[in-house]
Amino acid sequence: MCFTGWLDAAGLSARYQQAVALVVSSRDETFGLAALEAMLHGLPVVATAAGGLPELIAHGETGLLSPPGDVAALVDHAAALAADPTLAQRFGRAAATTARRQHLWDTALPRLLAVYDEIG
Length: 120
Prior knowledge:
Blueprint: H1 9-18, E1 22-24, H2 33-40, E2 45-48, H3 53-56, E3 63-66, H4 71-83, H5 85-103, H6 105-119
Parallel strand pairs: 1-2, 2-3
């Protein structure tokens, strides 16, 4: 692991291309913007099933989820993807497809506006 400081879009994309997966070890997570960003770059996500992450990540499809606080499970999941690049690539392709299908503005905005119409 290295800490790079701020990266521009090209630098961030290059880091995503070098990675096997994104690991998100949150105990609380509202939405998971970093996870979505990684998914859009074709990375599977290894994360805790905290907050909104289980709604974003399909366990065994777009990434792997572990119980919050279960460090051993999180490490095992990350190691499993590192040991099986074919599985990581399959999850990554599914993650990119899911993220683009469900979370780009042309799809997400009409759903958001519908919620505002309901409560407005």
